[in-house]
Protein 1
Amino acid sequence: MTSTTAHHTRPGWSIVARQELSELWGSTRGSGVLLGFSVLLAALSYLVSADAGINLLDARESVGVIVQTAIALGALTALVISSDAISGERERGTLESLLVTPLHRRDLVIGKLIAATSMWVAAIVVSLPFVAVLARGPGVAFDAVIVLVVAGSLVAAALTAFGLAISSLAMSNRVSLASAISIMLLLAAPSRLPGVTANGVLGSILIKLNPVSAGLKLANDVLVGQQGWSNHWTLLISPAVAAVLSTVVAIQLSRRIELGDSR
Amino acid sequence: MTPTRVECRGLTVKYGDLVAVDSIDLEVAAGEVFGLLGPNGAGKTSVIRALTTIIEPAAGTANVAGAALSDQRVIRQRIGVLPESSGYPSAQTGLSYLRFYGELFGLSRAEASDRAAELLDQLGLGHTQQRISHYSRGMRQRLGLCRAMINRPDVLFLDEPTLGLDPAGKEEVVRHLADIAVHDGTTVVLCTHLLDEVERACDRVAIMAAGKLLTTGTVDDVIDASDVPRSSRLRVHSDDIAAAHDVLGRLDCVDGIRFDNARPGDLDLQLAPHAVPPASARVLAAIIDAGIEIRAFETDRASLNDAFLALTAPGAPT
Amino acid sequence: MNKLLAIVFVTICFGAVGSPATAQSLDEVVVEVTPVSAQVALGDTIDLDVTVTNMSTAARDDLIAHIDVTSPDRDGSVDPEDWTATLSKQVGPLDPGASTTVTWSIQPISPGTFLVYAVALAPDAPDVAGSNVLTVSVEDQRSLNPQGVLPVVIIVPAAVGALFVSRLRRNRA
């Protein structure tokens, strides 16, 4: 009996990514989360564009609201998937079988990161029609799509990797998901600061340093405030740094993946 | 000389201050089916996890499938593992599940598909295109066995492979294990607390309790080591029963005598295990010398279960 | 007689030199808005013309036209900046008797009846010149398909829902 020799025809992360994508989109998990996202976005789109007995929003403001919501909710869907990545395997009892294969733990994490990111890509695809229709009137479609794709992708990348890092450490799915969502809400909170506080020195710094609030502020300033990219590109710095850092941390933490139950 | 496939010296596993495995030595020869027995909490799973590189031992050395424990990837490439509480993704089919694992072990997609189909046929799952969510418990265990064998491992570690199976399912798994060892030459380390399947399947066994290794050897060696009395049944004419009782009562190799009330001529005997000459021979000789006609005499070998209980009983000498 | 003429002459001179400069009042500036009434649906825009006429004998180049919106129906105020971004515009130089028209595009943001008016002001003027009123009736237009978003609102979730159902069926098979 000679065991199979490891001459990987494909890198481990690619094998894992393919399997995870198949599981995510072949089951109801991915489409279920996406359905929730699309219904919420559709409801909000209709409300912001319709006269619901309240003041009619400026069309640009409508676009800004939808883009910000798409970024926040879309990143949240990716976060939900990534925060289940390792802790979910642990809970379902499938982690040990993976750990006894020649697969690098790093490749396991990278493959799952790719699959979770597909959730954000799907969110972009679902959001585009809403953004395109609403942005048609005020003529900001190009800006809206760029903000959604660039700022949104950086925010989503940061949160997705962050969720995966939490999942590697958390011993249960409940802890992983609760922690990830709580921290995301904390990060999104500064973007809801009242104008005076947000525009103050400290508030402004806080918002710029925070990748989520920076991304949302960029959407607001470019689309609603009608301010040019040249004045606000610096708001992309913290999401970009966060995306890189959290990805590196998530991959490094893969070495510490454990089963979790002591016998 | 048969090469050793699994060897550990002074293997120690700790969880914080808890010593789960206390400096054990083991050797498993190539092609052997080796049973690792013990009550719950004995440390069996910790031994398996240490040898399969899931957890790092606190002390000791080990060599698995020709690789030192530090060569984790090499070991993982050469072993197959069926963990005790193995879960399965419910939305996949058995084929896609096994194909994935085949690819992880370096097979191309086509090779992995072929190997998966072969294993599914071999273990009686080839007929089904169902998703794993529709599999019975027994089917999942067999699927786990397929997964553990996807890379044609040198050593197969099975932790409670028959857990939750009905008798027919257990029988089937044990039969497959024997096939694997005999036909494929795979070394099997079987971790279980079901002793009847160990007696049938294992060439050698080791018994653990409270993290320590109590004894190792063939089933007979282990039973002998346990000093468990052998039971026998002697049948004489009902008129001779009292005389037979007297004769046997004087023998030091007879630990106990009991009348069988349902059968007037029968005596149940407990014989000392290590008597020289053997107790059964002395019993027969004594009855014959007393001129008592022997109508029947049976000796039961002590069971592994008896030996296990004797060895792992609280206060048993270690 | 000569003495009387001299006294009158001196008085006139002193009066011309000695009296303080008087800020130009806007009582000879006329402001008119057109149209005077409009009935629109919510979301429509109205082109508002504000005509400023200098009825005085002196040219002016300090006039500013400013519009405001109020609602007779509501407690509290209407924010005119919701209707248009720029409320004040320079009128430009205006010769005596000349007129100029400044235009706005205003968009009502809520249903109801509103009054729009304009004033002309100047930095040093003690008063303003007010216009007539434009009465705007804004219909509460409940469009089922505002901004054409309804097809997207239906089709996108339906498409994703179809994907979900297909996966559900496949996994049950």
Protein 2
Amino acid sequence: MGLSDSDLTAIMLTIRLATTVTVLLVLLGTPLAWWLARTNSFLRAPIGAITTLPLVLPPTVIGFYLLVALGPQSPAAELLIFLGVGPLPFTFTGLVIASMIYSLPFVIQPLQNAFSDLDEQSLEAATTLGAGSLDRFFSVVLPLSKQGFFVAAILGFAHTIGEFGVVLMIGGNIPGETQVVSTQIYTYVESLDYESANKLSAIMLIFSLAILLPLYAVQNRSLGSLVAPWPKRD
Amino acid sequence: MVHGNSKSTLNIAVASNFVSPMKKLIDLFAIKSSTPIKLSVGSSGSLHAQIVNGAPFELFFSADQEKPSSLVAANLASKKHQHTYAIGRLVLWSSKNNIDPHELLLAGSFTKLALANPEVAPYGEAAVSVLRSLRLYEKYRGRQVQGQNIAQTYLYTSSGNAQLGFISASQNEEPRGSTWNIPSSLYQPIKQDVVLINKADNSKIAIQFLEFIKSNEAKAIIMHYGYGIASGT
């Protein structure tokens, strides 16, 4: 089955977007998830709620606010232009930032759950043996919570692949820059080209399933609890 | 929703560019008829797909002629009850006051130019015609941003993310910002058709509504929102 050039461009762009977002989210999300899992601060509840917000907000709300908040008349935009970042709507960078907000809870929750499940004794043992906090993180925390990272990366990636409403709002449908698979499918449906819509949708379905399969193929009880993208009750 | 569409309700699907006049028209019709009217707003493409898949609408007010005609061709709508209810007018608009959008367009004094996706929206197709007529299409290709419909294009422009945008004259209801009324010679007229859906549960009242749309008082409202009226209807 032949795919058009614009379909291929959209597929490559979508994969590039999801990869960039996943890498950045895992890097930046780890300290935040660690803090949420270990802190006793009164800020834990409000910050936990804010990081979960994108899970329940309609993507159009996120997209609409980003479009308005990043628009040239906003203070945020002036700051960004001052920092040399330039206007963000209708750019790939803008999509990356929007997607990071959109997929944040899907990365934070599994990491946070993995970190709260950590065995206190191994952490204390490492400290007693004189491990610094960075050393302790890489030699104890990381190996013990690798399943959490696995789940976080897969969910973050898959969720970004499926992003639609936010891209529709702030993307501007620019080939190779903001025209991703989901918006391309929408365009096909709107222009009554159901055959092309079908083709791309089938690819999306199979691809997403293939990403999610390893998550459930691994028979592990603790993994199951990590997949649940909502705060775990202790 | 309570038990889908009851027999005594008129369900109208309307393209997003025509929502404001449609609400006025419904208010006026409500004086003459006690039938409650439910309005579903969307892009013509989505509404078309919904009708093909059995959406319970009696009337479909499209933003073009192509989609109602395709429903007629598929035996889903009635050719007898298809007519052009409005002719859309394209304007080039900026949310800033006291500027000349036409001059800015020719001079290239903008960073982003918004238009509706020409593949799906007739107003986007018209915008491309204008740019081609002015021999500016290729030149500004890299600065174009596309809304999926005319409402989104308006949002891009009104939020200032795009300095100029090709929108429908009907969208700038209380004139603000600056407008260039594009000469109609630069694009094909945007004929917007309405059609009666065959499976309509409530076709009698739907036909009454169609007759009402052709009345002079209805036409006055449509024209007030910046649309043209086809001669002979």
